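Researcher: Please predict.
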Amino acid sequence: MRTAAEPVEVRRPSAVRALSTLLAVTAAATVVVELLNWWYAPEQEFGLAVRTGWAMLRSVAFLVLIGHVNRGRAVARPFGLILAVTTVFAVGRLVVPRQGVPALPGLLGFGLLTALCVAVVVLLYRSDAVGGYLVRHRKGLVLDNGVISWREVAPKRPAVTGWLLTARVAAFTYSPLMLVPALVAGGSILDGRLSAVPAVLCWFVAGIVVSYVVLFATAFLMRHRPWARKLLVATTLAVLAIDLPLCWWLLGVDGLIRDGAPLLAAAFLCLWSLHRAPRTPEAS
């Protein structure tokens, strides 16, 4: 048995290198803007700390996206779209204080970060060079005629469209978008609101259960099972039916806007992607 040499990597186009640099700048800007919002916040409360920490974790997600882009993975497009949209929502909900007007540095930072996210989406979806590069599958060990090589492994499932990938990535955000406000609501327990304990616990459990349901549904969605679409649509509606009322009840109108709006955006993108995606596998 022999091993084959790893094939020579194709040089990345200049547009792809520019996208990687832009993503790194966006990751750094996310951290800076969140720190500015925290510094100028009138009240540095528990809820703000949770939302700020979650928003700053997105810088790590941008670094993961850079890895997908550099490897030419097709999932980079929907991942980048969802990350850009939810980042704008996550930062925007922290710029506006409960009372008064936003601080000028926070507004300027939000404007800069929004422009960076828009530029990321434009490069991902409007650049032919980037689109032609993001077509690769994951790599793995392949045994062919007694030769072991490390190369791309074509998936055994039928080819999937970008719309299905977008729906999948959007659905994966449901769980964290539920758990963050649930954690914020947990702060009310510390303030003596013990009656909220059952609701907060159910909120946490629902967020965890949703992650497994989405994982199961999207696995079969990628295999074009008709029932998987229905399950994902039902899961999306159930998530909205659970999360939005709890946001309004436990966090008030402010929490409904800050935490419900990002979930609504992800749900809309998931449902719209399912609507646009063909119901039968495309011929390869």
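Model: The mean pLDDT is 82.
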